[in-house]
Design a protein that fits this description.
The structure is a single chain. The chain has 269 residues and is α+β, with helices and mostly antiparallel strands. It has helices spanning 3-14, 20-32, 34-51, 61-77, 83-96, 103-143, 157-163, 255-268, and strands at residues 152-153, 184-192, 195-204, 207-215, 227-232, 235-242, 245-251. A 7-stranded antiparallel beta sheet has the order 1-2-3-4-7-6-5, with helices on both faces. Strand 2 and strand 3 (195-204) form a beta hairpin. The longest helix is centred in the middle third of the chain and has 41 residues, at 103-143.
Length: 269
C-alpha cells in the first residue's frame, strides 16, 4: 500500500466497501504514514460535520405565516376576472371536483412502488457484480506480489483439491486443463465478497489466471455461458455460476483466450 493507493481508496474505506485484506493494508499504512493519517482524519471530520445537525437551519414558524399572508395579499390585489372567465373556471372546477384530490398522489406513489419492485433487483445485482469485479481484480493484483500467488504449488489436481480440506467450508472443483494449454499451477486461500474463497491458479504461456470460486447458495441456478465483465486496470474478467458455485476468472490474457479458458473450465467442472 502506497500513498497514491491510499488516497484513491480512502472514501471506499470510510464507507466500509473494501474487503478485509485491503482494509488491514490501509490500517497498517495509516500507522506508519503521518501525511496519509492527517488526510484521513480530515476526511473523517468532514463526514461527521456534514452528517451532523450544525449545518442545518430550521426556519421559524413565523416565516411560514408571513409567506402565507403575503400570498393572500397578492391574490386579493389581483384583478377580478371577467364574468366569462368566472363561468369557465367554475365549469373546470366542477369537472375536476368529481375526482378525489388524492388520486394524482396515489397514482404517483403506485408508479414509484412499481419501479422499485421491477427495477431495484436489477440495480442491486449490477452494483453487487461491479463490487465483486473490483474485489477479484484487486485480489489478482495482490497475488502477483512475491510469495503471494500460491499456498500449495502443484499441477496435480489430486494434490491441490485435498489441500483445501479443513480450510474452507466447501470443497472446490479442481480440474487440470494442461492438454488444452492451460496447466494448473496451484491454489491458495483468498477473501472475496465478505467470505473466504478458493483461488485456483492456471497458466497460459507466461500469463497467470486466477479463478476465484465459492458457493452461491441453494437458490442459485446455472447461469449459462461465462459473462464478460468490463476490463479493469488492464485485466480481463469473466464470471459464471454452475451447480451452485460461483466462478470469477481474472488475467491479463487477451479476452478471447480467457473466454476460451472460462468455457473449458465451466464444461469440465
Amino acid at each position: 500500500m502506497n500513498c497514491e493507493e491510499m488516497r484513491r481508496l480512502t472514501h471506499a474505506f470510510l464507507d466500509g466497501e473494501l474487503d478485509l485484506v485491503r482494509s488491514i493494508e490501509i490500517e497498517t499504512h495509516l500507522e506508519s504514514c503521518a501525511g496519509c493519517l492527517l488526510t484521513f482524519q480530515k476526511q473523517q471530520s468532514l463526514r461527521s460535520l456534514v452528517r451532523g445537525n450544525s449545518l442545518y437551519y430550521k426556519a421559524p414558524d413565523s416565516l411560514q405565516h408571513r409567506i402565507r399572508a403575503g400570498l393572500g395579499e397578492a391574490r386579493d390585489a389581483s384583478a377580478k376576472p371577467e364574468a366569462g372567465a368566472v363561468r369557465t373556471s367554475r365549469l373546470r372546477q366542477t369537472r375536476w371536483s368529481r375526482f378525489p384530490t388524492w388520486t394524482a398522489g396515489a397514482a404517483a406513489f403506485a408508479a414509484v412502488v412499481l419501479s422499485i419492485v421491477f427495477f431495484a433487483p436489477t440495480w442491486f445485482r449490477a452494483s453487487h457484480q461491479n463490487l465483486l469485479a473490483e474485489e477479484v481484480v484487486s485480489s489478482h493484483i495482490r497475488s502477483l506480489m512475491p510469495n503471494h500467488l500460491t499456498d500449495v504449488v502443484s499441477s496435480d489436481q489430486h494434490t491441490v483439491k485435498p489441500w483445501f480440506d479443513g480450510r474452507l467450508d466447501f470443497s472446490p472443483s479442481v480440474v487440470d486443463l494442461a492438454q488444452e494449454g492451460f496447466p494448473l499451477a496451484g491454489g491458495r486461500l483468498d477473501y472475496v465478497g465478505g467470505r473466504p474463497v478458493a483461488a485456483l491458479v492456471y497458466q497460459r504461456r507466461k500469463h497467470l489466471i486466477n479463478v476465484f470460486t465459492w458457493p452461491e447458495g441453494a437458490s442459485s441456478s446455472d447461469a449459462g455461458a461465462p459473462v464478460k465483465a468490463p476490463a479493469r486496470q488492464g485485466y480481463n474478467v469473466y464470471h459464471w455460476t454452475k451447480t451452485g458455485m460461483v466462478y470469477w476468472a481474472v488475467s491479463d490474457l487477451n479476452s478471447e483466450e480467457l473466454k476460451d479458458f472460462a468455457r473449458l473450465l465451466r464444461n469440465a467442472t
